[in-house]
Amino acid sequence: MSDDFLIFGPDDVDLARSPLRGSLDAPTYVLGAFNPGLAVLPSGNLLLMVRVAEALKEPVTGEHVLAIRWTPQGYALDRHPLAGVSMKDPRQFETAHATHRMLALTSLSWLLPVELAPDGGRVIAVHYDKAIQPAASFQHYGIEDARISRIDGRWYMTTCAVSAERHCTTLYTSDNGLDYRLEGVVLDHQNKDMILFEGKVGGRFMALTRPLGELYFAWAPESAYAGGPSINLAQSPDALHWKPLDQPFLIPRRGSLANMKLGGGSQPVLTPEGWLMIYHGVETRETVGIYRSFWALLDRDDPSKVLRLEDEVPLLEANAALTAPIAERLYLPTPVVFTTGIADAGDHYIVAGGEADLACRITRIAKERFR
């Protein structure tokens, strides 16, 4: 059995069962089925919470470009004037003549639970009846990039919610790992990669965060840091109310393979040596950048202390051979691998992620790799 393969992709999604079908008549296709949260279910089976990015087949009509938006009455199509619109990033377009930079998405994302065998090598069931779609105005452009952590017998899932109201982080909880309840907004500012540690630290919930902004202030010219989006830490008494730690955590370094930005990947899991976390680093290249996965080991009692950091030799890189059979579906200009979950499988870890923002990738990595 291969230790590195695609397990679920765009062609595996049955759009006839999409939550958009109830009210959206326009023809759509799956831009990507990727970036899955990963959890172990009570049965021992694995759960992938797959992000399905559903896009319009004909987004441009006449003098307008269209975007899908959720409303309490159903899904609607917004018509943005095409004149002056920038579409250099295939995942979004920038509207013209706005005081501030304004984006709209070329797809709307919803979450699809996909159940796998315990070894991650086979799909057991696709739970369309448990799909998670927008349900509040702060999600009206979609729900993205689930991350799942099991803590004290409950499953906590963070997602990125996209809307004109706010670009925020939301929390879902579950008592069985499969049926999730929306708890609401937990981070009000833009934050793409909030991930709860899979266990408490000093009796408190701990999480990786990655705040975003329109500008960043420069480090001193002689500093080793490049600045930009970085990974911070936050703690909470209840997983709903979060206090950022005062000290910085992981910051992009000049001249490294991750000089553009950093962000969380898998949920940190406790090992005999400390908390193991896999994160992504982005190298500056064209519009999107090159995404790779790296890893770090953190102190079990004070995760702000980094015991080991491997940020020069990537743990994972994009693998063109995996997407070769569906190469005609590729739309990103640079290689992307985006780790989103990890599960203990005895002598190795099962690592899940998105490949090329297109499909779900499973990689088995021996535990010795992290020692």
TrEMBL record:
<dbReference type="InterPro" id="IPR007184">
    <property type="entry name" value="Mannoside_phosphorylase"/>
</dbReference>
<dbReference type="GO" id="GO:0016757">
    <property type="term" value="F:glycosyltransferase activity"/>
</dbReference>
<comment type="similarity">
    <text>Belongs to the glycosyl hydrolase 130 family.</text>
</comment>
<protein>
    <recommendedName>
        <fullName>Glycosidase</fullName>
    </recommendedName>
</protein>
<keyword id="KW-0328">Glycosyltransferase</keyword>
<dbReference type="InterPro" id="IPR023296">
    <property type="entry name" value="Glyco_hydro_beta-prop_sf"/>
</dbReference>
<keyword id="KW-0808">Transferase</keyword>
<dbReference type="Pfam" id="PF04041">
    <property type="entry name" value="Glyco_hydro_130"/>
</dbReference>
